[in-house]
Amino acid sequence: MQTNDKIFVAGHRGLVGSAIVRALKNESYNNILTRGREELDLTNQAQVNDFMARERPEYIFMAAAKVGGIHANNVYRGDFIYQNLIIQLNLMEAARQSGVKRLLFLGSSCIYPRACSQPMKEEYLLQSELESTNEPYAIAKIAGIKMCESYNSQYGTDYASVMPTNLYGPGDNFHLENSHVLPALMRKAHEAKINKSKTLSIWGTGKPMREFLHVDDMAAACLFVMKKAGHKPMLNVGTGEEVSIKEVAELICKVVGFEGEIIFDTSKPDGTLRKLVDTEKINKLGWKAQIGLEQGLKTTYDWYVKNESEKCRVD
Prior knowledge:
Oligomer: single chain
CATH class: Alpha Beta
Structural class: alpha/beta
Number of helices: 11
Order of helices and strands: EHEHEHHEHEEHEEEHEEHEEHHH
CATH superfamily: NAD(P)-binding Rossmann-like Domain
Strand content: 5-15%
Radius of gyration: 19 Å
Number of domains: 1
Low-confidence stretches: none
Shape: globular
Distance between the termini: 41 Å
């Protein structure tokens, strides 16, 4: 990629998309295309085709997706599979027709089987059953990976895919029911502190292990992979380190300043018990995560207090 190449970041307002835009600007890329949903509905094939034919971006970061935590994935199953599939179908086919040089598809570590060996290697994909609570989303993302592979095989396109672990950071969704575990915990801890609560209730047992990657590290990985022209195999992106939900809850309380008792609601589901991605392949290519969890939580909480805390109180 050259700094004046036309680059389309689909989903630029989301957690990952906004971080990719920041990373591109920090590296002096000056021809970045972005469109909000009110300007371009990615689920509308005609609109996507018209946009691509008119603008003809040379590179595409596919960060647009419908995302959410356990509750949202489990309740809005039809929305998750339909919206993610149609966004992928529309963008990839329009990219092929308009001659895009390179496309980067962003998936998720939830593509791996529920009982997957740990850490999860790229070749473990489709070896056994998925986690039931997020199966529709995972199937959509697997379809995206296979679409990249199939287009590369048949049409000679240069489409790559990256599978991030659990992401967090500035720009995250802090909704109590529809967000991922870390931002939901951060909001709960903040409100418990503000309300002077003595306890903080958390879903599940606290025993599941999770890996958390700061979104700015993810954006750096996306740029790194995009610059590797011709590298097509799927790549995991993560830190290679895991922490229990109990431990991350305690660390969030420390960062937020909540000093009450943490109570685990064991009537609620835990989800997958371990989710650690194997990052050997991307590490060997020359990329490694740089932002530690406590450091990342501090910057995320600072952003939340400045941008979201008052708005969240009226949800």
